[in-house]
Amino acid sequence: MAVARDKRPPMVRRTALREGLVDIDGARIAEATEELRHRGRATLHDRLHRVRMAGGLAVQAGLAAALAYFVSHRLLGNPQPVFAPISAVGTLAASVGQRFRRTVELIVGVGIGVAIGDLLIYLLGTGAWQLGLVVTVAILLTIFAGASVAIVIQAAATAVLIVTLSPSTQNLEIPRFVDAFLGGGIALLVTAVLLPLNPLRVINRAARPALDLLAAQLDATADGLRKRDRATIQQALERLRNNKEELATLAEAIEGAKETATLSPARWHRRDELTHYAEAADPIDRAMRNAGTLIRRSVTLIEDEEPAPDPMPDAINHLAESVRLLKHEFAVGEEPQKARERSLRAVSEAGRAYGAGVGFSGSVVVAQIRTAASDLLVASGIEQEEANRCIRTAFGEQERPIGEPAEPGETPKPPTAPPVG
């Protein structure tokens, strides 16, 4: 309910306060202040998490840049060792999970940029319009050849450097080749041998925000169903929809960890665990999407005043706890037995809710609980066919139409999947 603003002069309001009256603006100001405090804490938490996630990469990049500079300047005698540290940092930071490919792209891009820059300088000389022409030709030729975006950018950047530095720096081409190769090679050396990150720790940190988000919004949905609170469930839906960054971070971390386990002898013993994590990424993404449908249909259920039997929110709570258990058991390297058991408990409660009688949207919620639980079972390492069999067993069987009350002692039958939307 909106609160009317007190339009009296400030002196009158202060007098009223001294006389024991209530300032009607106070509650609204306090609420806004608390919201700002909450956002500030959340923002600080997110930033600190990002710093922790990027801390290892930052140290690797610093070490690689320093080594590339030292080798190029002191050992190879390059008086201006600019390109080597740039190549090292570019290899580490630009394509996490594809660093070997990034090194190759750097060298290919440098070759194209040098060739185009030198040719056009020889034919046209140097100047502003020549620089613009060189960059345009470098980009168009690399795109025509089907090169990646990284090669296109590198070719254009190298062409710019050749045109702008060639008049003052002689014999720039060979050192540029050497530095590109040197920087990329040192970056791979730092990643694989000198300072390899713990791949499981990287993945655990990346997975935590995505799984925490999913569990929290499932719990909020269960609470909203119990209270018939549409606003709470709608808010959970909006928060879950903003999960692209969390999933992208998880996918990138998995690729980077797989690369580390492939290149670094010190991390070879982690390959099996990383394979398990990599195989879990897709079903976790599917669980997110199915949970989104579950929450969206929970909103419709409240709007259409359909029944929400008590086991329904209980099932969603069990699903949320399964996500948390999966996160914990992955982090400590345990077989996720508890997560599997909780997923099946969610399905069993969903069966009880279905047997108690649900409407159309309620049947979709039940179906999505089953589907999300199946996704979590697959993420835990169970084959899809076996997960489906476990879901059917946990749900039970029933012979009545949707919405018809169950007979005493009757067990539920899985609903045929209604349209999702």
Question: In summary, what is this structure?
Answer:
The protein is an all-alpha fold. Helices cover 76% and strands 0% of the residues. It is elongated and about 85 Å long.
Structural class: mainly alpha
The general outline is elongated
CA-atom Rg in angstroms: 30 Å
Alpha plus pi helix count? 15
CATH structural class of the largest domain: Mainly Alpha
Could you say what the CATH architecture of the largest domain is?
Up-down Bundle
Taken as a percent bin, the fraction of beta residues is: under 5%
The biggest beta sheet is recorded as: none
Number of strands: 0
Give the N-to-C terminal Cα separation: 32 Å
Mean pLDDT, to the nearest integer, reads 75
Count of all domains: 2
CATH-derived topology of the largest domain: Methane Monooxygenase Hydroxylase, Chain G, domain 1
One letter per element, helices H and strands E, the order comes to HHHHHHHHHHHHHHH
Percent of residues in helices? over 70%
| Parts with pLDDT < 50 across at least 5 consecutive residues | 1-5, 398-421
